[in-house]
User: Fold these one by one.
Assistant:
Number 1:
Amino acid sequence: MKTDGELAREAQSGSRDAFTELLRRHEVTLRSIARAKLGNAESAREVAQEAVYRAFVSIGSLRDSDQVRAWLGRIVANLCTDALRRRVLEERRPAPEGRPTTLFDESLLESLEPLQRQLIVLRFVNDLSYQEMADWLDVPLNQVKWELHKAFEMLRSRVKS
């Protein structure tokens, strides 16, 4: 079986099959990140589709083919940030009569900060190590540890109350 790096180099040379295999390997993780950050399955699906398009268009700009997983994660994370900005702007507008102003119901996990939700999903759904999460999200390892600590404390306090 070829490594991600080998597939990325082939994709950079124009192999659609290699690019498709890369996406197949990482699609669940990409959607999980988007779902965790956005808290909405439909928005996550849209972001994942846009991420595939952007990755396809810009695969040639990938500098380190061995870091394709982190590169894909950054594309999704950046698109999620954009989507959240748009959501905030939309929520500031008055809602039409009889329509809710939020896009999803609050739940325990969704009450966390977006980065904390992402980290919880990456850790417990995708079984990534702290270092892998840091690489994937392009944040310092200490920030990953601290944000997970804060998320656990918040979840613990909400479960107790």
Note: Residues 99-106 have pLDDT under 50 and may be disordered.
Number 2:
Amino acid sequence: MKETFFFSHDYNARNDRKMLRLKVNLKMCGVGIYWSLIEMLYEESGELFLSDIDVIADELRTDPDKVLSVVKDFELFKNDGEKFWSESVLSRLEKRQEKSKNASLNAKKRWEDANAMRSHSKRNAIKESKVKESKGQDSKEELEKNPDDKIISLPQILEAEKKEKEKSCAQKEKCLLILAQSGINPLNPLYESTWLILWDQPHFKGKPAAVMEMLARNLRDYDEDYAIKLMEKAITGNYKTVVWEDTKQKYLEFKNRQNGIKPIYSRENNTRVSTQPGKAFGKL
């Protein structure tokens, strides 16, 4: 299905001087042609050919002369003799492209950070593997000293590996199930991958499911991006928890800064009174 967008539309646009002239001369037919042209400009990246006026008129079931009049006679569009455009449409398209570019860069950075965390976890796994290998070497030496001890066959080794793989898959399903049971259905795929990495960290790996479910419920108090950052900090800092006593206050302050709300301070004891009238915080 083709992706669709919307564009902003000033609710008092009908009172603009140019629009009033258009309505006087071409009635509501002219207004309808104008907004149809605006939609087409958004679909065609901001420019249309004057040579396509006949085609546009046929699509709108109207007279080509009326379409050409809307384009040229009311200062609503600009043209260079070949194409016509709207300055406001071009400006808004540019802003949309800039936002899309920034979102793409942010997503790329998040993926790079996630890969870095995976590498960190992989290094930890390699260390654990080396410890196990060392233990295995000790067992081998012990076996050489005691050749009568039972020797593990290849089928037994393969069966053990199969069980380990099944255990890993079951653990992953259990982790994701806890998210679902906690009412979390994240849109950002990084949320689930970061949650799985967190679960595999030393301080969280052995915790009961009920404790992890409580942690997941605490994360519901924050938007997805902020919750991901909290988990990332716990992973990279090797913390024992994700949400601290002052986390919610810091989150509120972060959201207030985003919304442009400035905190109010008491001059007497440097106490933050509120970020909005009637809402209180404690001392800084």
Note: The longest helix spans residues 87-145.
Number 3:
Amino acid sequence: MTQMPQLVALFNGVGGGAAALVALLELADTAGQQPARFTLAATAFTILVGSVSFAGSLVTFAKLQELMTSRPVVFPGLPVVFGAAFLGSVALAVMLVGARIFVLAIDGIARRFGVPQLVLSLLLAPFATELPEKFNSVLWAHRGKDTLALGNLTGAMVFQSAFPVTVGLLLTPWELTGDALVAAVVALLAGSVLYLTLRFRGRLTAPVLLIQGVFYVGYVGYVLTKL
């Protein structure tokens, strides 16, 4: 009976983790559908609460099992850290709901005008997601904050090339064929130009960066020929 509190903590954590996992799977199963906004909000809330419950239960179990200290873990700035974690969690939940609404809107527009969803998303998504973020780097560079500008660009590229791709591989039938393969080839060619320029010249210039726009315009031209 002395281990009962630990068992209760684990069961509570499993319940929270299961709720978050079921909500994520339900979100993935509604691809291509038009769920109500209340349903999306409830799903995001379930993911948030379930994740917090899972993490908190694991900490409780570790303390009861004396795997970590039972004394309060405090350090200077702890309220700030907790506040940042809470705001980050809320922002993540809002991002999940907002991304879902955006995807459904793209799907509806594509169906209405008879345009492939993939093509429309590849053309519009960069303007809705990446372009506003890149303007931050432009503003920082204009104000002489080169470190912030470069950090924003590199951090965004690392995140976009790692996390969304992983989610796509796990939750969707990832098949690079047709238009998707063309988009991937264009992206690899554009990236190769930047890499080779840095490799052999050691720096990037404005003309080299503008060449990336040529790749994008070429891809847009290809898309227009397919309509």
Note: The radius of gyration is 23 Å.
